[in-house]
Protein: Ferrochelatase
Amino acid sequence: MPYLTEPEFRHDRPARTGVLLVNLGTPEAPTAKALRPYLKEFLSDRRVIEIPRAVWWFVLNGVILNVRPKKSAEKYATIWQTEGSPLLVHTREQTRLLAEQLGQRGHGDLVVDFAMRYGAPSVESVIQTMRARGVDRLVVLPLYPQYAASSSGTALDAVFRTLMKLRNMPEVRTVRHFHDHPGYIAALAGKIRAHWQAHGRPDKLVMSFHGVPRFTLDKGDPYHCECHVTGRLLAEALGLSRDDYAVCFQSRFGRAEWLKPYAFDVLRELGRARTRRVDVVCPGFVSDCLETLEEIAVEGKEVFLTAGGGDYRYIDCLNEAPDAIAILADIVEAQLAGWTRAQPDTAARLARARALGAAG
Ligand SMILES: C=CC1=C(C)c2cc3[nH]c(cc4nc(cc5[nH]c(cc1n2)c(C)c5CCC(=O)O)C(CCC(=O)O)=C4C)c(C)c3C=C
Ligand SMILES: [Fe+2]
Ligand SMILES: [Fe+2]
Structure:
């Protein structure tokens, strides 16, 4: 196997640590032309589609890639921002803010960057750039609170596949999940409480998580349980009783059974029951994206209102909220133990030197 090009080994170079955030990836434009290669790469991933290759090849190339790019592009067009796809815009900004936050905590020497599992920037290209910058220790943080083989698992596959191509492998630490991280739960609860302070409380809080095929639960994927743990902890933090909230799963793909209850079924039922108001939150997504801004904020609302529901409010993801960035920094810092020690930041060092100078 040919190795990737590497920087020359030098004895005198100090160890350098990189922090790699990995998100899903998104098309380059809201057009069928851009959707096609994105969907092809995504839906060719064996972690995502587990049916036999030969059968799937015909379904994907014969049906899905002829129909879905156009339909999905129309949806992306409704949420597209001037700077690009919301998922990319948020991930880029979160990375910048995380680097800043880690710098303020004395870790200004870290190389912090993000990569996308599908599309650009690819995991391989970002790890190669980090190696060129001298990174030989790597913390990998997939941006999914709950572990699923089809999200975090495949993000880590991409990292390990790249490492297989390196002659001089960095040390690696990976984050599996943060679904029950007290800071993550507190940040979600804080966001919801702030929303309620501004708009009053709903009759029901709907917590909608991205779905996965039902058989993955039977085969040992912890995703379903981790979503329910997040839901329960969030309800506890908000002081909700079992009747005050519902956990459900969205974005079903294909005809197979997915995790239930389906979000649209729950919203339809709540509408039919003439529920006066629901608030919907998506605690399985760190960043707003197509699945939250279009499927939940727009389509979900339509389902609820058409069925007879009253008021529907979507509560944004944490995105760039300072407490969300602080949690990512906490998670990274926990992984740095024994690798790097926080250095007082430059401003603090200068202030101390000045104070010492004045004293002397
Ligand atoms: C939150 C974690 C996610 C899991 C688990 C997940 C599983 C999963 N997804 C698909 C199929 C599609 N998902 C699509 C979009 C999409 N999915 C996630 C997250 C998870 N997916 C996000 C954040 C996004 C949004 C990306 C964006 O650009 O905003 C899409 C593409 C859009 C579309 O055509 O509908 C597909 C397809 C499967 C099959 C699956 C588990 C097996
Ligand atoms: Fe998905
Ligand atoms: Fe479970």
